[in-house]
Amino acid sequence: MAKFATVRDYLASLPESQREITGELLPLIEAALPGAGAVWQGHPVWSLGPAPGRTPVCYVKAYSAYVTFGFWRGQEIADPSGRLEPGARQMAGACSVPVAPTGAAPPAIPGVHGARRLR
User: Fold this and answer.
1) Model's pTM, two decimal places?
2) pLDDT digits (tens, 9 = 90+) for 13-45
3) Which domains, ranges and CATH numbers included, belong to the chain?
């Protein structure tokens, strides 16, 4: 696994389709938590306070076929839309539409909601 010094380095390393998704997410996250992003445990995490990961709020993590945006305590968020899917511990997140080769329709993945619909 490659190591990245900054959130922007991590995002710049992604394939174009994933950069499009994270390019939409980053301004929204930075508006709410300016300057709070850092690479922690291999992917971008936004935390409260000066220590990355000490009081984490949200994260972005790219996989080979999709991007996940999640909240550390997401299961505590009232989500009448049903976009947040429970994860480990108290986490909950939403996955992007699967990344497909250029020009191809993305495959369907049951139960996965689009991160683009989070705005």
Assistant:
1) 0.73
2) 999 989 999 998 899 999 999 989 999 989 999
3) 7-118 (3.90.1150)
